[in-house]
Amino acid sequence: MERKGRSCNLEFVRRQQVGKSQSLRLSGLPLQKAKRINVNLLTERENVALQISFRFDENCIVRNSQFDQAWQNEEREGKFCLAKDTLFDVEVDNKPYAFQVRINGDHFCAYAHRTDPKELTKVCVDGDLELLFLELK
């Protein structure tokens, strides 16, 4: 992680499979120049089981998956609820049927699994933010 005022690129690798964890929690501060912040849950084969892409430049939050370098159908429903220079919290609960996503404590969406959630091995966070907290439980 880099200092405040710079973009963050963080790959969080855990020896225990991420898929065995029940939840992911992170807190961050979008930079004033923020265009995008991405939270990716990846499999061992580098497929993206879930990407949450906060797109300040489009005023939307996009969810998607990528398999064998091919992006799937995007989900864009929901209100854009982040602001530059304002702290935010994201929680992702890995339920048997879907990822349940909460932003700032409020339910945002359910994202149906497009791959076996037990195959998750990595969490990657990148974009225009200061990452303050990241936890897998």
TrEMBL record:
InterPro entries: ConA-like_dom_sf, Galectin-like, Galectin_CRD. Residues 10-137 form the Galectin domain. SUPFAM superfamilies: Concanavalin A-like lectins/glucanases (SSF49899). Pfam families: Gal-bind_lectin. The keyword ATP-binding does not apply. Keywords: Lectin. PROSITE patterns: GALECTIN (PS51304). One of its GO terms (molecular function) is carbohydrate binding. This is Galectin.
